[in-house]
UniProtKB/TrEMBL annotation:
EC category name: isomerase
Keywords in alphabetical order: Cytoplasm, Gluconeogenesis, Glycolysis, Isomerase
Cellular component terms (Gene Ontology): cytosol
Enzyme Commission designation: 5.3.1.1
Source organism phylogeny: Bacteria, Pseudomonadati, Bacteroidota, Chitinophagia, Chitinophagales
Stored InterPro entries: Aldolase_TIM, TIM_sf, TrioseP_Isoase_bac/euk, Triosephosphate_isomerase, Triosephosphate_isomerase_AS
Assembly behavior: Homodimer.
Transmembrane regions: none
Coarse class of the protein's main subcellular location: cytoplasm
Catalytic residues as annotated in Swiss-Prot or TrEMBL: 97 (electrophile), 169 (proton acceptor)
Binding site for substrate: 9-11, 175, 215, 236-237
Listed Gene3D superfamilies: Aldolase class I
Protein known as: Triosephosphate isomerase
Pathway involvement of the protein, from the record: Carbohydrate biosynthesis; gluconeogenesis; Carbohydrate degradation; glycolysis; D-glyceraldehyde 3-phosphate from glycerone phosphate: step 1/1
């Protein structure tokens, strides 16, 4: 079975003390991920060391940065390099989140550069893709997501592609009042896997975890994760509530 992943994305939330307490509350539930599971905490930069110290001795629990620079080093005030993240012994980094694309104008080319730096450092990218409402309404979501994948990922070797985690975000269903059905989630996840298979073959495509990032909650996680091509979730708001995130972890296949 492919790796099944519950990834928390705290975004720009919580003070240092609140972040410590949230992690303590989750860990107090004695979550013990199975061998094919990974629980990943996407933490704001100032809290990465604190979080990593709490989980780095625990089986299948990891910390991820929420972003990285596409530059190795230099005069880029306020940026954080892959080398800096690697020096903290981090294993994962989220890149290409819809908020980064929309608010900070990140391009597919920039994301391909970030991918290369992360993979070159032995880190695993969690690569986000997904379409806005206007694209979904005109029915061109498949072509839109395929373009994101091709322009950012398809220069990779097959071996490097196996190291990438993909997170599909239906941007049109996040905070809009619209809801994506489990059938819609499975449909686009299966399509993403078919695009990877066309480029790299079925064996590689079957190894790539594809997470769902559309308002995963404690009460819908089990149904979503039961879909054959949904390999867990990239969780926003629900990851800030300890017991909600614990329930989402327990819903993994």
């Amino acid at each position: 079975m492919r790796q099944q992943i519950a990834a928390a994305n705290w975004k720009m939330n919580l003070t240092y003390v609140e972040g410590q307490q949230l992690l303590n509350d989750i860990l107090a539930e004695n979550v013990e991920p199975k061998d094919n599971h990974a629980v990943i905490f996407g933490i704001p930069f100032p809290y990465l060391m604190m979080a990593n110290e709490k989980v780095n001795t625990l089986k299948n629990l990891y910390v991820a940065a929420q972003n990285c620079s596409n530059k190795k080093s230099g005069a880029y005030t306020g940026e954080v390099s892959v080398g800096m993240l690697k020096s903290l012994n981090l294993k994962y980094c989220i890149i290409g989140h819809s908020e980064r694309r929309e608010y900070f104008n990140e391009t597919n080319l920039e994301l391909s550069e970030k991918l290369d730096l992360l993979l070159g450092a032995g880190m695993k990218p969690i690569f986000c893709c997904g379409e806005p409402l206007s694209i979904r309404e005109e029915g061109s979501q498949n072509a839109y997501v395929e373009k994101q994948l091709k322009e950012s990922l398809f220069h990779l070797s097959a071996e490097d592609m196996k190291k990438v985690v993909i997170a599909y975000e239906p941007i049109w269903a996040i905070g809009t009042g619209k809801t994506a059905t489990t059938a819609q989630a499975q449909e686009i996840h299966a399509y993403i896997r078919s695009v990877i298979a066309n480029q790299y073959g079925a064996e590689v495509a079957d190894m790539v975890p594809i997470l769902y990032g559309g308002s995963v909650k404690a009460n819908n996680a089990k149904e979503l994760f039961a879909c054959p091509d949904v390999d867990g979730g990239l969780v926003g708001g629900a990851s800030l509530v300890a017991m909600d995130f614990v329930e989402i972890i327990r819903a993994l296949k």
